[in-house]
What does this fold into?
Amino acid sequence: MAAFETLLVERRGPVGWLVFDRPDAGNAMNALMMRELEGAWQELDADPAVRVIVNTGNGGAFQTGVDVAQMSRDLGALREQSRRTRDFELRFTGWHNAVTKPVIAAVNGVCAGGGLHFVADADVVIAAADATFLDPHVSVGQASVYETIALAKKSAMEPVLRMAFLGRAERMTAQRAHAIGIVSDVIDPPDQLRAAAQELAEQIARRPAEELAAIKRALWNELERTP
Amino acid sequence: MTYPELDTLKLERRGPVGWLINNRPEQLNAMSAHMRDEFETAWRALDADPDVRVIVHTGEGRAFQTGVDVNEIASDGVGMQRYRESVEKFDFHFTAWHNDVWKPVITAVNGICAGGGFHWIADSDIVIAASDAQFFDPHTSIGQVVSIEAIGLMKRMPVEAVMRMAFVGRYERMPAQRAYELGMISEVVDPPERLRAAAQELAEKIARNSPAAMAATKRALWGALEMGLTDACKAGAAELVGMWGHPDQEEGPRAFAEKREPQWQPLAGKPKS
It folds into this structure.
């Protein structure tokens, strides 16, 4: 497997792990991580030994979105990212990369702003009991679009609107995210999160790969229907 | 800005928060033909006021809203026919959504919300309720069809609960707590008397965020109800890019770095034509 600087990519049995690995930066995406994410998803999706993918983070945060400070020092990367944002050619998540295998997001801590991409675009989401969710975009003068659109399509809309408009003023707890169906399992104690994710992934991996891919395709296609 | 004097609604501003208060408490805030017209005036007035960053909608008395004024319909000889043309054309002006209000709207449900009252739940952004608030839809119990409000609700919450209310009619009420569990509302305020204070606090938190960014976000998210996921994201991208170059995008990070409150550009919707 290729070596990555900002991610850890590994295989445990039938489960491929994609782990954000910039713990000192809240796992925020710098230019390198954005490039590496595309390669990592494609590598795991292409690996026949991987049946299910788990996405989590190292350290106290799951994902906190674009590393604005780093990007502002790398104008070429900023320009390219702006173009991709404008043209909807992002390659951060499994969905962006047309991954065909089931993706489990295992939210290990704070998930903020652009981090919500990885929750919205996963198939199954579980969270550590101390994980929190917030969307600070409007608090810094940014619109909140892709992440909240997908979240609102997949769950009750009101809590998503509340998160989008409250910005950094409020955090949704893992328990509330569980109650309204954004996540399907809350892991307590939090340090059991990875074990729980591995176990869940192994259960899913028992199903034939073609069947899983067909189910995923059918259900995500439903989200494309014009109501 | 001075607001128009209205007979059936109260309008006021408290700090950055515009309040729209249903004011027919004796009729449980049921909507007469006159109130229906005044709603448009009210939404437009609050939307056009640049000092209003967030709108809160609530009711006087023990009901939030109970739909069309059935007594008026039954007694004045015109009945529902008066609404035929607007229903056929889907040309309404009594909710924020009907009036293209792109400021955040909080509905604070202060008691009974019945039947047509769901229009303002379905068409607002954030909904909170007093702990003794109750929700039910009596349309089918009085021989009426429920459609528009329930369709709006179904798009934003689990469908089963909406169908149950539609079919059970007046014979069951959903408590605020259940509405919270379902994600129909995001906060239950107890004791109920604290509802307006809680709504004001919530609105003031929201008012600290960029008005332009919130309007773009609202257009993207409400637009997404009309489209499939990829198309909605592409339309959302236009809203995102539309913010580039806006002064708030410079001001937000600068204020954050300088540890001060941002000075956002004011935003005003279109006045009533």
About this structure: The longest strand of chain B covers residues 9-14. Residues 50 and 78 of chain B are 39 Å apart (CA to CA). The radius of gyration of chain B is 19 Å.
